[in-house]
Design goal:
Elements (H helix, E strand, L loop, with lengths): L11 E6 L6 H14 L4 E5 H8 L8 H20 L3 E5 L5 H10 L3 E7 L2 H7 L4 H6 L6 E2 L2 E2 L9 E4 L4 H14 L1
Parallel strand pairs: 1-3, 1-4, 2-3, 4-7, 5-6
Length: about 180
C-alpha cells in the first residue's frame, strides 16, 4: 500500500444569479448536462427545488430565513466542491452579501449573472410570481418590491438576448479558462 495521498479533483461552484424568471434554472440544467457529457461530476442545487425541504410551506422569505437559506446553499455547494464536483447553484440571492459569502467560502467560485430586466422576466413569468407581485399578493419579490443587487464583478454576464446555446457556450468557455 502506498503512502501517497491522492487528492480528489478540484471542485468548484458556479452560482447563477439574476431576477426571478430570468432563466437561471434553464441555464443551470443545461450546464450540468454539458459537464456530465464531458465526464465531470456535476450537481445542481436549485433554490426553488430546495426551499420546500428547508422551510414549512409559506415560510422562509423574511430576511433571517433568507440568510439561513443562502447560508445552507453555500455550505452544500462548498461540500460538493470539496468532494471534487462542479456544483451549479441556481438561486436569485438578491443581496450581494450572500453571493460574496459563497465566493469567500469556496476557493473555486464562478458567479454567472443573467442580465435580464424586470419587463423580460415578467413576460416570461412561468410561475406567476411577477403577476402576483403586480397584484400585491407577493411583496418580497426581488426586482418588484425588494431590491436586487447586481453583482459587482461576475465572472460571466449572460444577456437576455442570448439563446440558451449561446449562454451555455459563454459559461463553458469561461470555465475552461479557469
Amino acid at each position: 500500500m502506498s503512502d501517497v495521498a491522492i487528492a480528489p479533483p478540484p471542485g468548484r461552484a458556479v452560482w447563477i444569479t439574476g431576477l426571478p424568471a430570468c432563466g437561471k434554472t434553464t441555464l443551470a440544467n443545461a450546464l450540468v448536462h454539458a459537464l456530465r457529457r464531458r465526464g465531470e461530476v456535476a450537481i445542481a442545487l436549485d433554490g426553488d427545488d430546495l426551499r420546500p425541504f428547508v422551510f414549512a410551506a409559506g415560510a422562509g422569505y423574511d430576511p433571517e430565513a433568507r440568510d439561513r437559506f443562502y447560508g445552507l446553499l453555500t455550505h452544500l455547494a462548498r461540500l460538493g466542491a470539496e468532494g471534487g464536483a462542479t456544483v451549479v447553484v441556481s438561486a436569485t440571492a438578491h443581496r450581494r452579501v450572500w453571493r460574496d459569502a459563497a465566493r469567500a467560502a469556496i476557493p473555486r467560485f464562478c458567479e454567472v449573472f443573467i442580465d435580464a430586466d424586470a419587463a423580460i422576466c415578467a413576460a416570461r413569468d412561468p410561475k406567476g410570481l411577477w403577476r402576483a407581485a403586480a397584484e400585491g399578493r407577493i411583496t418580497a419579490l426581488p426586482g418588484a418590491g425588494v431590491e436586487y443587487e447586481r453583482p459587482s464583478h461576475p465572472e460571466v454576464i449572460v444577456g437576455a438576448e442570448l439563446s440558451r446555446a449561446a449562454a451555455l457556450d459563454r459559461v463553458m468557455r469561461s470555465l475552461e479558462r479557469r
